[in-house]
Amino acid sequence: MPEAFTLNRQFHAALLDAAKNRFLTRSIHTLQKTLMILGPTTLTDPDRAEKAVEEHFGVLDAIKARDAARAEAAMRAHIEAAQRVRVRALRAALAR
């Protein structure tokens, strides 16, 4: 899990750096800090970690193809998948 977390952070940091958009970077950092209150990363779930890697490759493939619409769709799908896992975890914690 620690390696998955580190690699995930590096992937997202590389994308932010490549965007060269300081407003986006600031917004993402604020969002990341806010999400910390929700608990550990969704990558503690082994299935989620494996799926996230697949999603990252989808984003990278779209970027390499210079297909902005596909890259955006892949990133949105990636974020939404993580959100679904996060919401399930929060619901399960509340049900205990």
Write the layout of secondary structure elements.
Layout: H1 2-19, H2 22-35, H3 46-64, H4 68-95
Query: Which sequence of SSEs, written as H and E, runs from N to C?
Result: HHHH
Radius of gyration: 14 Å
The chain-level structural class is mainly alpha
What is the percent of helical residues? over 70%
The tally of strands reads 0
Strand content: under 5%
| Count of helix runs | 4
* Principal-axis shape: globular
Low-confidence stretches: none
Arithmetic mean of pLDDT: 91
Biggest sheet, open or closed, and with what strands and sense? none
Oligomer: single chain
How far apart lie the N and C ends? Answer: 24 Å
Characterise this structure.
With 96 residues, the chain is mainly α. The chain contains four helices and no strands. Helix 3 runs antiparallel to helix 4. The mean pLDDT is 91.
Please outline what is shown here.
With 96 residues, the chain is mainly α. 82% of the residues lie in helices and 0% in strands.
Write out key terms for the chains shown.
96 residues; mainly alpha; 4 helices; globular
